[in-house]
Amino acid sequence: MNVYEAALKRIKYLFSEFEQIIISFSGGKDSGVMMNIVLNYARETNQLHKVGVYHMDYEAQYQMTTDYVTRAFESFPAEVSKYWVCLPIKAQCATSMFQNYWQPWKFEDKEKWCRQLPENCINEGNFSFGFDYEISDYEFNIKFAKAISKKKKTCFLIGIRTQESLHRYKAVNKFSDKNEYESNNYTYVISNNCINAYPIHDWLVDDIWIANYRFQFDYNRLYDLMYRVGLSLNQMRVASPFNHCATESLKLYKVIDPNNWGKLIGRVNGVNFAGLYGGTTAMGWNSIKKPAHFTWKQYMYFLLDTLPEETRKNYLRKLKVSFKYWLEKGGALPVDVVSELDKSLEFEDLGTPSNNRNYTTDYRVIKFKNYLDEIDIKNPNRLPTYKRMCIAIMKNDTACKTLGFGLTKYELEKRHNIMEKYKSIL
Predict the structure, then answer these.
(1) pTM exceeding the 0.85 threshold for the entire prediction
(2) Region 341-349 average pLDDT
(3) Looking at the domain covering 3-205, what would its CATH class be?
């Protein structure tokens, strides 16, 4: 079967298993296609009453994204539940080293808002779900999912594709955290009454646009403008403009949406700088350089000394976890990467990973004697180096996602504590 038929098969199964189907809709191309397929299936099978649509609105976004989300919500049948969330959650901020997050839609900052509250949205004035919402968007999503699944067995549909990034690939293929629902590898159990499902995880970007054309789905017209300014299909992203994924393309706002650009500059510190230098060495992109008299280790500590204390401690926690992983436990590397390692690096080959069956290629567990300063191989991002940490700092990537890091022990414990704390809600 093709990917469309496979998605329909998954959707049909999920509707048969769950009392409530919530579509997570960002306003982007992937979630938009998934939403249209699900709504069509629910309409054809008379199950629209089971469907809800959840949209997290980050306030600062392209006008065309707002237009698309508005069109979508206005087109939903009356039976569909609507959750358009406009709350001051703590959203990632990668444009400033003095704030790790910013808060959209905070009533006390109303004069700074980039636009007015949408009609019938969930906001500070009418929030009734009984939990603190001034938390990270990740934490909010978990709390919200548990809140609306108290009385109904619920499935959240997430429109991510593994082709997009390694992090999205990991979200579906959880090598060391197989918490699946009924052994379905496109699902992840959140609680006893709630799961996430990724019905289009195996689609390519070409499949998205083929579906939009073949079924004449409505979509975010922002992609048409992105195409006209020369972006490839894989470069086109719709996201909060201040997070680390969007920093490189922040300058596009000046061309595509100049009216909103002026509002963004006054909304969060560092936006204009990121708009000018995002995608350059000034923001840790391309060929980053260091002062000649520094090693990368020395340069990293120099950069850390320029940061606010909270931000500096965050990076040092990441570094400590990396030390423990590579210098004590050992990390899994593809055999072709291992073959490039110079013996002078002093490392120990501990053999194949204990869960090697979860890897698509042959891997070896490698433990280094010393943390590397830098390394000249085909895939340097596979290895632990001080240069990689310098790049993360320059990009203000406090999550260190650009380094290929998964969740650290600290973050895993934080997630575990959150889930334990709110387990009693169900």
Answers:
(1) no
(2) 83
(3) alpha beta
